[in-house]
């Protein structure tokens, strides 16, 4: 299609670069039309497959299992998933192209979001013995004391099991 369109375009332009630019512009229009038709056909095919799948599901619910229905359904599902995977790949490709073109234009926005989240998650104060304290040094000291007491070495403690085991070894088993 592209070669045919390229060869069919004839321009009466003396400048080769201008002629090349105009040919590319005309080719771009043809490609856009082709892509639009292809997307419409793909969308119609997707709707047709969904409709057939709904009909098959209704028939399976009403009539029960049928060999024709059971063999047709997986084929339709495969076609549907193939179309979806093509659309997903196209979306990924478009996102990569957009990121390559725009670059880090949104980095200021994302850094602002991260900084706002960090500010919202920051501890602004604590309750000490029923009193709200928001002085940073006192909050820091309270955190230090709390975690120091929670994470200190408990010392050597031997666990004692206070449980009667119902099964004991007799002399022959030991």
UniProtKB/TrEMBL annotation:
Keyword terms of this UniProt record: Nucleotidyltransferase, RNA-directed DNA polymerase, Transferase
Sample GO molecular function, one term: RNA-directed DNA polymerase activity
Keyword Transferase: yes
Protein name, per record: RNA-directed DNA polymerase, eukaryota
